[in-house]
Amino acid sequence: MNKTTLASIIGTTLSLPAVAAESYTIDPRHTFPSFEINHLGFSIQRGRFNQTGGKIMLDPESASGSIQVAIDTASISTGLAELEEHLRGKDFLDAARYPKITFSSDKLSFNKDRLVAVEGNLTLHGITKPVHLVVDYFHCGINMIALKNVCGANATTTIKRSDFGVDKYAPALADDVKIVLQIEAIKD
């Protein structure tokens, strides 16, 4: 191979755009994982967690990335203090023993540059199980108030709480729990 050909190959390689994942930090002021559960067949009860953190890596061009989310178990909020204390206790979340609910994934699915699904592992009550999140909303852009790059998403899944050792009052209190992860993350 002559020097001209080698120089041409090196020059072409160096002129290609670098494809790298972009790092984001979860914005705890705009991220509130929530849940829905059938309450004794009478109603759908809802709650959320008020303290969430983590990191996200996104590379839509290569359809890849990773997500690390940590939710403070004791930050559960239902609008009823007595219920929240019960849910933090040993009958349900046992927040003293299991202070974090975590989700991690390195299997993101994209349709063009739009995130549409995530496969990962949910750890709840000390038990880790695979879950599939459907992403029904995803948008990245400049937040015109903060003047920062932000990505936001809404993702849902349904788990069986008994799979995670949280089976108090089942089946009267539904075993199926819908989880909704409303999330915003700011580019680092």
How is this fold's topology laid out?
Layout: H1 3-15, E1 22-26, E2 34-39, E3 43-49, E4 52-59, E5 64-72, E6 76-77, H2 81-88, E7 100-111, E8 114-124, E9 127-143, E10 148-160, E11 173-187
Describe the structure.
The chain has a single domain (19-187), classed as Lipid/polyisoprenoid-binding, YceI-like (Lipocalin). Helix content is 11%, strand content 56%. It is built from 2 helices and 11 strands; from the N terminus they run αββββββαβββββ. It has helices at 3-15, 81-88; strands at residues 22-26, 34-39, 43-49, 52-59, 64-72, 76-77, 100-111, 114-124, 127-143, 148-160, 173-187. Strands 1-4-5-7-8-9-10-11 form an 8-stranded antiparallel barrel.
Which short descriptors sum up this protein?
Lipocalin; globular; 2 helices; 188 residues; single chain
The coarse silhouette is: globular
Q: From the 3D coordinates, which CATH architecture would you assign?
A: Beta Barrel
Query: How large a portion of the residues is in β-strands, by DSSP E?
Result: over 45%
Name the CATH superfamily assignment: Lipid/polyisoprenoid-binding, YceI-like
Write down the CATH class: Mainly Beta
* Largest beta sheet: strand ordering: 1-4-5-7-8-9-10-11
The main β sheet shows up as:
8 strands, antiparallel, barrel
Which secondary-structure class do the elements indicate? mainly beta
Query: What is the name of the CATH topology?
Result: Lipocalin
Distance between the termini: 43 Å
Give a count of the beta strands, DSSP E runs of length 2 or more. Answer: 11
Domains (count)? 1
Give the proportion of residues in helices: 10-25%
Question: Helical stretch count?
Answer: 2
Could you give the order of the helices and strands? Answer: HEEEEEEHEEEEE
Low-confidence stretches: 3-18
Radius of gyration: 21 Å
How would you state the average pLDDT, rounded?
A: 91
